[in-house]
UniProtKB/TrEMBL annotation:
It comes from Sphingobacterium kyonggiense. This is P pilus assembly chaperone PapD. InterPro entries: Ig-like_fold.
Length: 231
C-alpha cells in the first residue's frame, strides 16, 4: 500500500480528475513506451486499485490517494517474470478553454504519470552482456559509437555508461560525459554515444564501460576505429 498526494495549483479553477493505469516498457534505446493495460507479460496493472478513481479538487486543494497492489497468491520467486510494472495516470477530465494569439480556442488538460514497480522477494541479480560495439556516422548529427547489450537481471537496473577514447598516434586520452541508463530484465538494448564534434582525425581505441549495481559491477567493451574530422 502506498499513498499519492495530488494538488490543484490553480487559484481559480476546479479540477475534475480520474485515475487510470497503463503498461510500460523501455524501447531498444531506453525511451518509455506505453501500452494498453494488461497487454504486456510483465504487467501488474490488473493488480492495482485506488481509493478514489474519480475525484474533484477545488482551487488550492490537495487530496491523498491510496494505491493498493494485490499480488496473485500463485506468484513465486521462480516465476519467469520477476519484475512487474505499471504506470498510474492522473488525468484532468474538464479541460480548460484558452485562446491563442490568433484568437483560436484551445482546450488544455493536465495528465501526470507515476511509474509503479514490483519485484518478487529474493536475492538481487544484476548483469549485462555487451554484444557489439560499432562506429557510425549520421550526416546531419555527427559521429557515434553504438553499444548493443542484453540485460540479465531479476530487478530494475540503474547504471552509467562511461566512454574513454585513446588516440593511438599520440596517446591522448579523451573522456566523454557519462550517460545514465535504466533497464528491465530481458531488455535488449542499444546505447548511442555521441563523439565530440571537434574530435581530431586519427586512429582510436574506444573503451565503453558499463557501471551498475551501485557501481560495484563493471562490463567493458573495446573498439578500434578510424575517424576523419568533419571540415
Amino acid at each position: 500500500m502506498q499513498f499519492i498526494d495530488v494538488t490543484n495549483p490553480s487559484k481559480d479553477y476546479a479540477l475534475e480528475l480520474g485515475v487510470s493505469f497503463e503498461d510500460w516498457s523501455y524501447s531498444i534505446v531506453g525511451d518509455n513506451v506505453l501500452s494498453a493495460k494488461g497487454s504486456l507479460t510483465n504487467s501488474c496493472s490488473s493488480w492495482l486499485s485506488v481509493s478514489d478513481p474519480y475525484f474533484s479538487l477545488a482551487p488550492g486543494e490537495s487530496k491523498r490517494i491510496q494505491v493498493t497492489l494485490n499480488v496473485p497468491k500463485d506468484m513465486s520467486t521462480q516465476n519467469e517474470t520477476p519484475v512487474h510494472t505499471s504506470m498510474l495516470f492522473v488525468t484532468q477530465l474538464n479541460p480548460r478553454a484558452r485562446s491563442d494569439r490568433d484568437g483560436a480556442t484551445i482546450r488544455l488538460a493536465v495528465r501526470s504519470g507515476i511509474k509503479i514497480y514490483h519485484r518478487l522477494n529474493g536475492r538481487e541479480q544484476q548483469d549485462i552482456d555487451i554484444t557489439n560495439i560499432s562506429y557510425l556516422t549520421v550526416d546531419s548529427m555527427g559521429d557515434f559509437l553504438a553499444a548493443d547489450y542484453d540485460v540479465h537481471s531479476n530487478t530494475w537496473m540503474e547504471g552509467k555508461v562511461r566512454t574513454e577514447l585513446i588516440n593511438q598516434e599520440n596517446g591522448k586520452k579523451i573522456n566523454i560525459e557519462d550517460i545514465g541508463f535504466y533497464a528491465l530484465p530481458k531488455d535488449v538494448r542499444k546505447q548511442y554515444i555521441q563523439l565530440p564534434n571537434d574530435l581530431p582525425s586519427g586512429k582510436y581505441v574506444a573503451s565503453v564501460i558499463f557501471l551498475y549495481n551501485d557501481q560495484e559491477s563493471v562490463k567493458v567493451g573495446e573498439l578500434e576505429f578510424d575517424h576523419v574530422a568533419k571540415k
